[in-house]
Design a protein that fits this description.
This protein has 136 residues and is of the alpha+beta class. The protein has three helices and seven strands, in the order ββαβββββαα. The longest helix has 11 residues.
Length: 136
């Protein structure tokens, strides 16, 4: 699993259920649609007491913090009524299935300028994995 974010707050919204709020500034460059695609259909939520839940994602949004334009965007993940917001304390962690470290680059689209080295590594990622496995 790959850590997506720590939960800053969990809100219960009447018609939609629980929304988990957190930040991951590495993903600020992704559009809302690409963020949805990156996160996928389910997450794993690990509570501060160690309990884990696999939850279906009902919706995702990006929120611009009003307190500081330099602050990372806030990611809101709606998980419906599968869990009660009261049981989700600050510091709970949201995980997604393990992704290839360069996989997020495919979500950047043509507007992003990848330097030549990054593009080379991205294009040859499986080759580098093979080398690493042979060295172990």
């Amino acid at each position: 699993m790959e850590k997506l974010m720590e939960v800053l707050k969990a809100h219960n919204i009447n018609k939609h259920g629980v929304v988990l709020l957190g930040q991951n500034e590495d993903l600020d460059i992704l559009s809302k649609d690409k963020l949805k695609q990156y996160i996928g259909d389910s997450i794993t939520l690990r509570l501060t007491n160690g309990d884990e839940y696999i939850l279906e994602v009902a919706g995702i949004d990006r929120i611009y913090p009003c307190f500081s334009p330099e602050s990372p965007l806030i990611i809101g993940i709606c998980v419906g009524n599968a869990i009660d917001s009261v049981s989700v304390e600050k510091g709970a962690v949201v995980y997604i299935p393990k992704n290839n470290p360069f996989e997020y680059l495919q979500f950047l689209g043509e507007d992003s300028a990848m330097d030549e080295l990054t593009k080379y590594i991205f294009d040859n990622y499986n080759y580098f994995l093979t080398i690493q496995e042979n060295m172990a």
